[in-house]
């Protein structure tokens, strides 16, 4: 699970770096103050998708293996359900984070990090925020993983 959490930090960092490059390219083309977008490439987000898929595989499979080996027999299904519940709660948390970021970054009439015209914003800051939150999540996991006493399997 720790490997998956570490890969998720790499994924958000890669997305931030790609956005920095995209903004530099938009600036070179003089598109910052225009509605025109940067000519996209279908292959640009592929590294992030590969990293995100790898992170989910490590985390999800690690959770299920942990529940199967460490949970009491009567609670294995419940633990699997809680795993899916935490996934869905994370999906609800993402719009909340986006709303909070939008609220604080648009104070005073500023464009904010995520405006309608992404060339005027700083989506890279949002990705760095998500990378930081992922890193914090990984640190919390590591603290609990170190304190955990493994159940003896027969």
TrEMBL record:
It is found in: Membrane. The chain crosses the membrane at residues 80-105, 125-144. It is a multi-pass membrane protein. Residues 1-16 form the signal peptide. Its main location: membrane. GO terms for cellular component: membrane. The keyword Membrane applies. Keywords: Membrane, Signal, Transmembrane, Transmembrane helix. Gene3D superfamilies: MFS general substrate transporter like domains. GO terms for molecular function: transmembrane transporter activity. It holds the Pfam family PTR2. The keyword Cell inner membrane does not apply. It comes from the Eukaryota. Belongs to the major facilitator superfamily. Proton-dependent oligopeptide transporter (POT/PTR) (TC 2.A.17) family. This is Peptide transporter.
